Amino acid sequence: MIHSLFLINNAGDIFLEKHWKSVISRSVCDYFFEAQEKAMEPDNVPPVIRTPHHYLINIYRDKIFFVSVIQTEVPPLFVIEFLHRVAEMFQDYFGDCSEVAIKDNVVIVYELLEEMLDNGFPLATESNILKELIKPPTILRSMVNSITGSSNVGETLPTGQLSTVPWRRAGVKYTNNEAYFDVVEEIDAILDKSGTTVFAEIQGVIDACVKLSGMPDLTLSFMNPRLLDDVSFHPCVRFKRWESERVLSFIPPDGNFRLMSYHVNAQNLVAIPVYVRQNISFFESGSSGRLDITLGPKQTMGKTVECVVVTVHMPKVVLNANLTATQGNYTYDPVTKILVWDIGKLNQQKLPNLKGSLSLQSGAPKPEENPSLNIDLKIQQLAISGLKVNRLDMYGEKYKPFKGVKYVTKAGNHGHFVVTNWKLHNILASPFYV
Amino acid sequence: MLESSKESLKLEAMKRVVGLIAKGKNASELFPAVVKNVANKNLELKKLVYVYLVRYAEEQQDLALLSISTFQRALKDPNQLIRASALRVLSSIRVPIIVPIMMLAIKEAASDLSPYVRKTAAHAIQKLYSLDADQKDHLIEVIEKLLKDKSTLVAGSVVMAFEEVCPDRIDLIHRNYRKLCNLLMDVEEWGQVVIISMLTRYARTQFISPWKEDGVFENSEKAFYESDEEKRKSAEETKPYAMDPDHRLLLRSTKPLLQSRNTAVVMSVAQLYWHLAPKHEVNIITKSLVRLLRSHREVQYIVLQNIATMSIQRKGMFEPFMKSFYVRSTDATHIKTLKLEILTNLANEANISTVLREFQTYVKSQDKAFAAATIQAIGRCATNISEITDTCLNGLVLLLSNRDETVVAESVVVIRKLLQTQPSEHSDIIKHMAKLFDNITVPMARASILWLIGEYCEHVPKIAPDVLRKMAKTFHNEEDIVKLQTVSLAAKLYLTNSKQTKLLTQYILNLGKYDQNYDIRDRTRFIRQLIVPSERGGALSKYARRILLAPKPAPVLQSAFKDRDRFQLGTLSHTLNSKATGYLELSDWPPMAPDQSVRNVEVAEAMKEWSPAVGKAKSSKSDDKFYSDSGEEEDEQAADSGSDEEGGSEGSTRTPVSLSSEAESENSETSEDSSQSEKSSDSGTGVKKTTTQKNKKLQQAKKPRKLVSVCDRVCVCVCQQLSSPVFVPVHTYELLHRMTGKGLAAQYHFSRQPCIYDDRMISVQLTFSNNGDHTLENIHISEKTSAGQNIHCFSPIECLEPEKSVTVSMGVDFNDSTQAASFQLCTKAEGFNVSIQPAVGELLLPVTMSEQDFSKEQVWGAVFAAKLVSSGALVLVCVVQKDSGAQLTVNTEKTIIGSMLLRELQTVLSQGS
Fold first, then answer.
1. A151 secondary structure, DSSP code
2. Which tens digits make up the pLDDT trace of B263-273?
3. Residue B69: CB atoms within 10 Å
4. Distances from the Cα of B799 to the Cαs of A105, B710, B735, B744, in angstroms?
5. Dihedral of the CA atoms B339, B345, B348, B350 (nearest 10)?
6. Which residues of chain B neighbour A143 with C-beta distances below 8 Å?
7. Would you list the DSSP string of B401-445?
8. Can you supply a Gene Ontology BP term from the record (chain A) (predicted)?
């Protein structure tokens, strides 16, 4: 299975290496560098690279390449999923998964990696278990440790490891028992120039922060579970209960975790919360162009649309933009050719508008494609699909927990890397129109 | 510092050493100093020393031996964590001398009380095997022992060891097969992946192919023309395929894992279904795979690759999700290309217009490599779907005036390929391209145009010599590939139109003769000998025309993923499209099913072991449910002041039934009943509402009692294991007698599986057999006479040979009534009116209800909760023992169904006594 792991930063330095079997020279990474050079952009590096004796499977996350070395057949997703789990674990332990954080905590990182894999096979990947084995660093703890000499390595085997609920640690105690659920929905939509929806879907997740003592057994039910088209669960959720009754019944892990993610696929049901009127045109002569974008709220169910940001990837020939915004401010980066217009809150009365001229490289032909617009937004206290949590019941413990549910709608943001939101298809004269 | 007496100093020093290791710097000279600390009491220090040891022991074997005794001691430590980590380090030190010690340690740890230590032992097996392969036989013994382990913790690791050490010893799996299937849900995620892929291989060797059904018709058709003997043989084959219950068990136990958050697990279940499930069941994986596309970039890449392979074979699977494969401007290039590939595979007559419109936006993409790939995709669509070839060609010709060079070049290449399929009609396109020739600079495109003109010079007799003239001028500046094509063009023209081109050809051949590239020199020499008649080469030049102007077959534009299906999906080999080290071939289905009983031995044992537990769990849970339910009902009834008794809206029917048999037996009977008909289902809103209501009431009524949830979870799982349609009694009913059907006989039975057409339908399996002496053609359902009943027909059977039978399934929505569904069954010649009559029990779907507390001492009985398939109304049945008799209660909204069910149950139960 996984033989070795190298962490490589954007500059191409290998700043950490770990071997689970015999040592493999870091020169194996040369093949990776070669592929990286060829790919130009970090996103374009192929996830699986073949070298004469090994296979390199890599992921790119938070500006770090996690490159694992494989020697024999293994499902590639197995490795990729594991590497992402490692990155998430770093994030969980150190707050962020950056090169600095990893270098500062190199010993803990090493202990973690040692615990997570044995001979290349995952051993413990549940954060609740790992945190019992290796305590996360805090300022207080490091001070106490340096004075008393006690260690931050757990002495006994976490009980969770042996039980049938490996995700929960035993003996949890809180004075305030709380359970919070965030229903976060993302709309992913493609609109064409006239504003009609080409494609729209809603993806949602329920992130939970559960701080409850003992072994609570929770049941979460929805007002309208039929909305959910496709779901995936944290292992703690009892699938049978979901299948028969459409309720989530689970013994939660302690702390933050993603309870479920779901998909709402109803083409016509997806309410697009804003509308866009846009006109970007380039003139044949005079090497200039015009831009005019107006945004307005639509179907927001009485909630305000916030954090609206419009991003336009301009064609290469656009040298500069001279625009005026009635609300918010815009920046144009002539190097990356990205126009960003940060609007903020969407005002019902006065619609924000961005208007002005674009200057093009003189002599260059007029760009063929009209750029597409990506729109980012956020709506608090609204799940755009209409999903509502009905109630949360707790069994197994006697206290009364404090419960809370929060709804947020965002424009689609695939995981942590792709910011695809609102591609406005520009349908021009169509040679292939059948 | 390592020598220091202070522990904190040592720890600090060790941390620095580990820091060095992490950076990849050499810290091996510290070995002696570090080894001394191996026996230290401080656990963190100890762990760091372990890290160091594992890293450098291989290099300094002698010194490493010093630490061995410490580990041996630690192996006996009462703390399981210390035992396990000692074993881990001991087995990770790659020093050949200690192999016997390791072997001993593994054997001991394999029978350790702690499953965690046993898990570590399973890992150690692989390590030892890679260190010394001679130990294989001993290690297999240990694996065999660990495979029997019932702990979910161990299962994944030991299967991993099995895969690495002895993947061919399939006989070791037989007895553990069912256990592994049943435990699968509770194994940790990583173990699930390994177990699923192992079971996929296993199933391919042990079960017969479920795909035969599809092939039946071809077979029988073929047999028609063959000898009698062969006919008989194929008749045997045609007998309806019955899936091995164990095969079904595997499919069923992996299905819920499609909902896992771990993408690797989902992928492995998907490949299991792809390789093992009957064709019509494969579709359930589609949604989950499409879901994975919203995950990280790397995950998308792998999943798209697999979808690309699947979509070649089964377009229909992904067609509804076509929009998910639309390219986004922010996708990475390799993801874009894969999506393009999939869209091309999915394109058909119906959706081609949308696909092309989508492609047309891609052509304008700023990512030129991607735009070029799109043009190729258009070319592939054009060849696959003949209706649009012309449209595509026109579109591509328009693209020739594109400013971007790569786009133009790619279009030229694709046009060339397309033209080759039908050259005669498109001479104007060739002319157009010849005109554009001057502006095109990309060598590949220039070469393509030259080739086209040369190949079809007869269609463009005027232009061709002119192009050659231009080429003669610029010959020395061209790329090699263009030069080669120029030489070919010259040769072809010389043969067809030697008057105009003789001098030009000779000039070009002379230029080629002194070219720097030897390929071109060779080609020139060859062509000269071929076409210019001389004394020696005369023999060949006769055939020059036939050699050069032979009609060439059009290239087949096909997917790059065409040949990938030889690898198991989801594997590294599949991703790389070449065999990776250690890839285990997926075998073909065996022609005959191997002995099924090999798996039985263990199961009989397991059943004995499990069944009491099951019985108890089931009954206890059921009682619990029952008690609270009935309690509620009573409350309600009391409140309604007995209006129900008069046949009111509540519709609850209760009749005491005298039964002298023991509660145990009824209990088992009912639970068996329930398990038989348990199906996975979408629960209706009605059910949900009722449950929540109940929960509320319960809370009001009683304080929630502490549930031992862990135990409960196990129970639920155990119940699942038993509740399989495997035990469905195949009671068939007659639909059409062979006498009335003039040779066609039809039987039906209720398969008690969720209906794939609609969740409100009940699936009915029909078996047709032809008892007559002539072939029956086009068997289908023509008229659905009964009102209000939805029928999903089976697809028409084209022909049924005499003495053969075929099984199809259909779905009927009975609207929760026992009224027969009647329809007309037609063959090509005649029609017969038939009807299907459901028994009341067939209208029910079991439902799992929430656990509610109960008091064991007072009531002992059994409960069965279900809902009506169509309306989703709840049906609750319970049996309570009272003194010498028993009381049977049925609660449901639908009065008629309730009373019918009650009557039937009553007869069945009294017969039992």
1. -
2. 999 999 999 99
3. 12
4. 72, 55, 19, 12
5. -30
6. none
7. T-S-HHHHHHHHHHHHHHHHHSGGGGHHHHHHHHHHGGG---HHH
8. vesicle-mediated transport
Place of tokens 């392969």: B133
Contact in structure between B892 and B864 (CB atoms under 8 Å): no
Which of B711, B681, B693 has the alpha carbon at shortest distance from B847?
B681
Q: What is the pLDDT of residues B110-154, one digit of tens each?
A: 888 888 889 889 999 988 888 888 888 888 888 888 888 888 888
Going by C-alpha positions, the residue among B308, B389, B319 that lies closest to residue B350 is: B319
Cβ–Cβ below 8 Å for A226 and B685: yes
- What does residue B279 show for φ and ψ, rounded to 5 degrees? -55, -40
Q: Which helix (H) or strand (E) holds B340?
A: helix B333-346
pLDDT in tens, B499-546: 778 888 888 888 888 888 888 888 888 888 887 766 555 666 677 777
How many Å apart are CA B744 and CA B800, to the nearest integer? 9
Q: Which of B199, B113, B131, B211 is nearest to B162 (CA)?
A: B199
**DSSP state for residue A266 in the 8-state scheme:** -
What's the complex ipTM?
A: 0.84
Distance between CA A419 and CA B331 in Å, rounded?
9
Q: How far is B210 from chain A (nearest CA, A)?
A: 25
Give the H or E element holding residue B213.
helix B212-224
Residues A137-173 as b or e (16 or more Cβ within 10 Å = b): beeeeeeebeeeeebbbbeebbebbbbebbbbbeebe
Give the pair of three-digit tokens for residue B809.
């399934």
Helix (H, G, I), strand (E, B) or coil at A19: strand
Q: What is the DSSP string of A50-95?
A: E-SS-EEEEEEETTEEEEEEE-S---HHHHHHHHHHHHHHHHHHHS
3-state secondary structure of B504: helix
Structure token pair of residue A207:
């992130």
- Cβ-based neighbours of A109, under 8 Å, separated by 6 or more: A16, A90, A102, B22
Nearest to A212 by CA among A248, A249, A172: A172
Q: How far is A209 from chain B (nearest CA, A)?
A: 18
Give ∠ CA A93-A99-A101 in degrees, rounded to 5: 35
Cα dihedral B193, B571, B318, B753 sign: negative
CB-based contact (8 Å) between B41 and chain A?
no
Q: Considering only residues 272 to 311 of chain A, which have any Cβ-Cβ distance to chain B shorter than 8 Å? A: none
Identify which has the larger pLDDT, A40 or B726: A40
- Other Cβ atoms closer than 10 A to A364: 13
Q: Among candidates B330, B600, B689, which has minimal Cα distance to A373?
A: B330
Distance CA(B261)–CA(A234), nearest Å, equals 6
Contact A388/B at CB under 8 A: no
Q: Which residues are CB-neighbours of B813 under 8 A, at least 6 positions away? A: B758, B760, B761, B762, B789, B790, B791, B869, B870
State pLDDT tens for residues B708-732.
333 333 333 333 333 333 345 557 7
A25 min Cα distance to partner chain B (Å): 9
Confidence band for B611, pLDDT divided at 50, 70 and 90:
very low
User: In chain A, what residues touch B382 (CB-CB under 8 Å)?
Assistant: none
- How close B694 comes to chain A (CA, Å)? 13
Read off the pLDDT of each residue in B317-333 and give the average, rounded to a whole number. Answer: 82
B577 Rama class: left (phi>0) / alpha (psi -120 to 50) / beta: left
Contact call for residues B241 and B210 (beta carbons, < 8 A): yes
Helix (H) / strand (E) containing B80? helix B80-92
Q: Name the amino acid, one letter, at B283.
A: N
| pLDDT at A429 > cutoff 60 | no
Residues 5-34 of A with CB under 8 A from B: 14-19, 21-23, 26
**B42 vs A contacts (CB less than 8 Å):** 151
